[in-house]
Fold this sequence. Notes:
- This protein is of the alpha/beta class and about 270 residues long.
- Helix content is about 30%, strand content about 20%.
- The protein has eight helices and eleven strands.
- It has a six-stranded mixed β-sheet. It has a five-stranded mixed β-sheet with strand order 2-1-3-11-4.
- Strand 1, helix 1 (about 20-30) and strand 2 form a beta-alpha-beta unit.
- The N and C termini lie far apart (about 120 Å).
- About 20% of the residues are buried.
- Residues about 205-210 and about 240-260 have low confidence and may be disordered.
- It comes from Streptomyces bugieae.
- This is LysR family substrate-binding domain-containing protein.
Amino acid sequence: xxxSEASPSFRLAYVPGVTPTKWVRIWNERLPDIPLTLVQxxxxxxxxVLRSGEADAGFVRLPVDRTDLAAIPLYTETTVVVIxxxxxxxxxxxxxxxxxxxxIVLHPLDDTLDWERPPxxxxxxxxxxxxxxxxxxxxxxxxxxxxxxxxxxxxxxDLTYRPVSDTPESRVALSWPQDATTDMVEDFIxxxxxxxxxxSRGRRPxxxxxxxxxxxxxxxxxxxxxxAAGASAGKAGGRSAGAGRRRGSGxxxxxxxxxxxxxxxxS
Length: 267
């Protein structure tokens, strides 16, 4: 390998809240010679990372600009409200967006939900990040509505969360540049879609070497010239049986001449 050549590797970006562990494990089992590098990026920067080539593919949140990026939607997350454990909402299993009408609901600048209008009352200012908003919830400043994976990511012992209906939902997708659909990207797509290692759309094994026409004719001629074992035995048996029948066909005459009996009297 020359100095200009680089070892093959696959770079996978993912946004906060996504857990790629399962897919990474399958990749390492199937392609142990190609290391997979994880690149965690903020949700707002994920598409720029893919376009710049800093990652080969990535787990992102929809929507995706399909002009230059391809995407495969994977799953939809439950939307929850993060609250202090002693909040009144903690007493119910689920609430609606209308139930938050009198509550201060924080809306961080990195919010991943596509709001037409966020529920509740707006805070004095928007927190810079979801992590900052979590700290404000713990301080009793307000509540926070996020995808469930982010509530789990920023878990605190003094906070809990409950599902919220009538709110936007976050959808996670696998995305990559359309003009950079490499063999490794196809391999990872197959893993994410649950294809087996022997799938026709997976990594194909090397094809057997093509035989020359002369070799094919020689093998075919040899197969025709070589009789089957059963056929040879049958022909040999047929000849023996035929010979026996021919010998037996003269039996009556031979038997008559050789028939024993009393001798005739001579006159």
